[in-house]
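Hello,

Our lab assistant flagged a job as stuck in the queue for most of the afternoon. It eventually completed. Since we weren't sure the result was trustworthy after the delay, we are filing this so someone can double-check. Below is the sequence as submitted and the structure that was eventually returned. Let us know if re-running is recommended.
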Amino acid sequence: MDLDGAAALVTGGASGIGAATVDLLRDSGARVASLDIHEGHGHAELDIVCDIADEDQVTAAVAQAHDALGGITVAVLSAGVGGFGSILELEAAEWDRVLGINLRGTFLSLRQVGRAMVGSGRGGAIVAVGSISGFLVDRMMGHYSVSKAGVAQLVRVAARELGPFGIRVNAVAPGTTDTPMFASTTRLAGYRARVTERAALGALGTPHGVAQAALALLGLDWVTGQVLAADGGVSLWSPIDPAESLGR
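-- returned structure --
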């Protein structure tokens, strides 16, 4: 898919991976509308304040973006939040907050974008931002992990349902990425150094690097229903790796 002239929608476009995605889309020649709960910072041509957990707001925001851009041909659903707490201590309200934004919000955004693309009859491509936490086990992050596992399965189902309309749906799964959300881990002693050491490429991810993966998926015309880990290889680390006992 050629992104030059594409009409693009990005959720969570005001910061982090979303903002980097907006920048790369614009560099590729796309016209971009950003949906975010915070005011934009000039990255997109159209900034729309929207809480993606609110059905009415999502419906109105996607319609506004569609009308302003003359349609929607590609979308990156990046909006999301983190969370921390053990299952035994987690309040139901915190579970609902994280699932409401990360899973419900992604569903609402995907549904409305999908409806717009089907209505246009021109097909399209959608990439949701999941996480490697959706298929790894991270203690104290049960609600976050479940929300991202749900995003991965939502993408697979959507790919089957929307494929006949020429719409591809994929996901990118970042690992530890240096975003405002990741900044909260500074209170965890040694965490940043540990995950950096365990990444095969020996570094934290960047929003730009994850955004590159999202745009790559937008451009792959024969790929749908897939989850691409963009994590620098941190998910390759194994706690039972025998080479560690050899000092390697």
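-- support follow-up --
The delay was a queue issue, not a problem with the job. The result is valid. The helical segments are 16-27, 55-69, 92-120, 142-162, 191-198, 207-219. The chain has six helices and seven strands.
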